[in-house]
Structure formats: structure tokens, C-alpha cells
Automatic annotation (TrEMBL):
It comes from Streptomyces klenkii. The gene is opcA. Residues 312-334, 341-351 have a biased composition (Low complexity). NCBIfam families: OpcA. This is Glucose-6-phosphate dehydrogenase assembly protein OpcA. Residues 312-361 are annotated as: Disordered.
């Protein structure tokens, strides 16, 4: 059942929700939370579709806030609220209210949303695109116990992570963090089987993918080892390499669906690591309403502390220190210049060969 209300108020919208529930024969409210979706007209359909799919696991009242920008100064001066109320099968599991704000009411969106929140139920605010720099200080974000953003939709995702770290408040989270949950679970299980100290790590993924940075931050924070972030052609995350004293542990996913786990002394294993849809990510974030301490710790580690470099340049960094090491014997024995010169020329070639062999692994 769908009802359109033009130039309406929050009180009339509440009355329409009650009438809709009575009309379909379900007067009781069986929803567990209120999900506030702040988006624009372009992304409203996809965001609402993902929320409806997630509502099968979390029955909720979905409030979609769309701020419409009028073209003329006369229209921008007029405050108007239009609403589309959906109940029953057209609203997924729960209820849906699409709010379109015009004019001055755009600056007071929280006053429109507040009377529509479910009583005594948690509130989650989600920005599919265009999230504020400080979600907690946003008027709509202040209404929620949890605030969900998506750094992947930002113009500069890596810079967005730095802003998230600087303005983090308990209750903040990001869908880029939910995207790496299967990777973190698989790597943790692999290290439980491989009893060896990790000495370094490398995360490989496409550029401008904040999930790769977050995974590298998590490894650096949890393991306390240097982590290298390299760029690949994707899709998404493509590989994680953990160098241990017993040998490398590699989790690679070149095609975005099936991964291969390689560990010393064990045969390679195929692992299902399919890239997940937004509805699955949102449903995961709605399962917990308490602050995510692990996300906070990884985010606060700092993106600038990671070693960023293209994957193709990795062998060159190993071969570079070789000439300095080769000149050391010459400095210690000034009288043997003729013997030192061949050693200096032979050592870099031997070092470079070792770098190529390592890159081939």
C-alpha cells in the first residue's frame, strides 16, 4: 500500500502510517529499529532497495531523507515537505517513508525526522553518498546510536579515512570496514593454524579502494609489523601476503569471487570469497549497535604510517641498498682498492638476482 502526501507535516505522516497498518490488517508495530537514510534523488532507489533487502533480517521503519535543491530563489524560499508512505509488501519488512524536503525546511531535517522515530527503539543513520565530515555533529547523525558511512563513495577515499579518524566518535562505522570482514576472518583462521611469528605483511588491491587501506591498518595494528600497501588492477582486494618465519601465508583473489589460501607445509585451498552486495554489508552493520572498538583501533593507527607503493616497484626497493653494503669493505681496507673494486661491482648483481627470485615467488 502506498500513499502520497504533498505539502504535509510529520503529524499527517504518522496518521497515514497508522491508517496504512489498519488497512492491511497489521496494527501492531513489530519493528526493531529506525533506519534513517540520508541521500539524494540519484541514489535513493539503490539505497532503498538495499535497505528493503536488509530489513528481512532487521524489520525496521525506513525514513529516506532527500533534500531537493530548487532552481529559482523564489522556490528556495518556500518551505515544503512531500512524503511517500509505504506499508505492506511494497515496504519490505516494516514501513517506509520517503521524505522530500524543499526550501528552508532542508536546514531543519532533524525536526521533520524526530517525530517519526519509533519510540524506545535504536536509531541508525546511513549516508550512502555525501556523508558529512563529522557524522556525530551532523543534526541527523546526532539522532542515531550508530552512524554508517561509505568511504568508497567519496571523491578521495584515502583522504576520507583520515577525516574519519580525526573526527571519530564511538558509534561511527563504515561499509568499507564491513567489506573486509571475510578477509579478516580468513586471515585470523590461517594464523591460528600457522604457529609462526609474522615479520611483515603486504595488502594488494585496486587504487582508491579504502577497504585495502583498512585491511592494512588492521594488520599493522593487530600484528605490530610493517605493512606494505601495493596497487593492482583489481577488482577490489586481490591478495594479502604475510611473511612468517616458517614461510609466506598468501590469500589471493584475482577474479573477485574465488580465492586461494597458501600456507607453508600445506596444500593450496580454494576459498569462497565473493564480493558482497550493499544489502549484505548493511545487514551486517545492523547486527551490532555498540561501538566497534576494533574498527576504532585500526582507524586511529593512521593511513600515513602505511608504506604505499605500486606493486611493480617492489623488487627495486630490495636491490637499492646493495651498493652501500658493497662499499663497506673498501672503506675499511684502503690499501686493497684493487680487490675492493671487483667486490663492489659483483655484489649489486648478486643482490639484484636475489630480488628477482623473491619477486618470482
Amino acid at each position: 500500500m502506498k500513499m502520497d502526501l504533498t505539502d504535509t507535516t510529520s503529524s499527517k505522516i504518522n496518521n497515514a502510517l497508522v491508517q496504512g497498518r489498519r488497512a492491511i490488517g497489521t496494527p501492531a508495530v513489530g519493528m526493531v529499529l529506525t533506519l534513517v537514510i540520508v541521500t539524494d534523488e540519484e541514489h535513493a532507489y539503490d539505497a532503498l532497495k538495499a535497505a528493503n533487502d536488509a530489513s528481512r533480517e532487521h524489520p525496521s521503519r525506513k525514513l529516506v531523507v532527500i533534500k531537493r535543491v530548487s532552481r529559482s530563489p523564489r522556490d528556495r524560499a518556500k518551505a515544503r515537505l512531500d512524503a511517500e508512505v509505504r506499508v505492506g509488501t511494497s515496504a519490505g519488512t516494516g514501513e517506509t517513508v520517503v521524505l522530500r524536503l524543499y526550501g528552508d525546511v532542508i536546514d531543519h531535517a532533524q525536526s521533520v525526522v524526530l517525530p517519526l522515530l519509533l519510540p524506545d527503539a535504536p536509531v541508525v543513520v546511513w549516508w550512502p553518498v555525501g556523508s558529512p565530515v563529522d557524522p556525530h555533529e551532523d543534526p541527523l547523525g546526532a539522532l542515531g546510536q550508530r552512524r554508517v558511512t561509505d568511504a568508497y563513495a567519496a571523491e578521495d577515499p584515502v583522504k576520507e579515512l583520515s577525516a574519519r579518524s580525526a573526527h571519530y566518535t564511538p558509534g561511527d562505522t563504515d561499509l568499507a570496514w564491513a567489506r573486509i570482514t571475510p578477509w579478516r576472518s580468513m586471515l585470523a583462521a590461517a594464523l591460528d593454524q600457522q604457529h609462526a611469528d609474522v615479520v611483515s605483511a603486504e595488502v594488494e588491491g585496486e587504487g582508491y579502494n579504502p577497504s585495502a587501506e583498512l585491511l592494512a591498518l588492521w594488520l599493522a595494528d593487530r600484528l605490530g609489523v610493517p605493512v606494505r600497501r601495493t596497487v593492482s588492477d583489481g577488482p577490489g582486494l586481490t591478495a594479502v601476503r604475510l611473511e612468517t618465519k616458517a614461510g609466506p601465508v598468501v590469500l589471493g583473489r584475482p577474479d573477485g569471487s574465488l580465492a586461494t589460501l597458501s600456507m607453508p607445509g600445506q596444500p593450496d585451498r580454494a576459498v569462497a570469497l565473493q564480493r558482497r552486495e550493499t544489502a549484505e554489508l548493511l545487514a551486517e552493520e545492523l547486527r551490532r549497535l555498540d561501538p566497534d572498538d576494533i574498527y576504532q583501533s585500526a582507524l586511529k593507527y593512521g593511513v600515513d604510517r602505511l608504506n604505499h607503493a605500486p606493486a611493480a616497484k617492489a623488487p627495486a626497493t630490495e636491490a637499492a641498498p646493495a651498493p652501500a653494503d658493497a662499499e663497506a669493505p673498501a672503506a675499511e681496507a684502503p690499501g686493497s682498492e684493487e680487490k675492493a673494486a671487483p667486490a663492489a661491482s659483483a655484489a649489486p648483481a648478486k643482490k639484484a638476482g636475489g630480488g628477482k627470485k623473491a619477486a618470482g615467488k
